[in-house]
Amino acid sequence: MAVTSPASRRWTVAALLTLTATTGLVDAVSFLRLGRVFAANMTGNVVFLGFGVVASSDVDVLASALAIAAFVAGAVAGGRVGRPDLTTTVLTMTLTGLSSDSVLAGGPGGRPQRRFGSVLAMFGGAATGALLLQITFAGTLGLAAAAVGAVALVFARRAGSGGAGRPAAASTSG
């Protein structure tokens, strides 16, 4: 089912890629400076919980469990006030799709630009966050906040100018 976006398809894809890069920034801060736990992407936290089964592992199981619980609480709240059918980019699915759809795997090859864009956005956000954290903690969080604010501003302006009603992609993985 298509999700209606107040912006054009191009602006919507740009916004999704910007938000994906922002998750890289946020996870750089949370993992590198706030206790080796992911805040934006839960895959690592689930893996850390698995590592925690081994008593000799140096993993903070409580931190990972709390991050997952907070993420689930946010998702529940978002589902009540937002669109529960709007999926987020799942990097593992994106990479799997790129691989299975490739000509090397016998797939159609298609147009993988958006999938590559999603992977590069996450990588770029994480790398930028890691580099910025060497200089400024607050500035890294400020950049993430500014990126989210810019996306919100674009959508607010588009919605206010009568740009609503255009179908948009539900995720950047396709």
In summary, what is this structure?
The chain has 174 residues and is mainly α.
Polypeptide structure, described:
Helix 1 (9-32) packs antiparallel against helix 6 and helix 4 crosses helix 5 (113-133). It contains 6 helices and 2 strands. The protein has a two-stranded antiparallel ribbon. The longest helix has 24 residues, at 9-32. The chain is mainly alpha-helical and 174 residues long. The radius of gyration is 18 Å and the shape is globular. The protein has a domain at 3-35 and 87-168. It has helices spanning 9-32, 43-51, 61-81, 91-101, 113-133, 137-160, and strands spanning 3-5, 166-168.
Helix/strand layout:
Blueprint: E1 3-5, H1 9-32, H2 43-51, H3 61-81, H4 91-101, H5 113-133, H6 137-160, E2 166-168
Antiparallel strand pairs: 1-2
Helix pairs in contact: 1-5, 1-6, 2-3, 4-5
Which short descriptors sum up this protein?
174 residues; single chain; two-stranded antiparallel ribbon; 3% strand; disordered C terminus; 63% helix; 6 helices; mainly alpha
How are the strands of the biggest sheet laid out side by side?
Answer: 1-2
Give helix and strand order, one letter per element, not per position: EHHHHHHE
Radius of gyration: 18 Å
Overall strand count: 2
Helix content: 55-70%
Poorly predicted regions are: 81-89, 165-174
What is the average per-residue confidence, as pLDDT, rounded to a whole number?
77
| Tally of DSSP helical segments | 6
Hey, roughly how much beta strand do the residues contain? Answer: under 5%
Q: Which structural category fits the helices and strands? A: mainly alpha
**Morphology call:** globular
Please report the distance between the alpha carbons of the first and last residues: 14 Å
Main β-sheet, in a few words?
2 strands, antiparallel
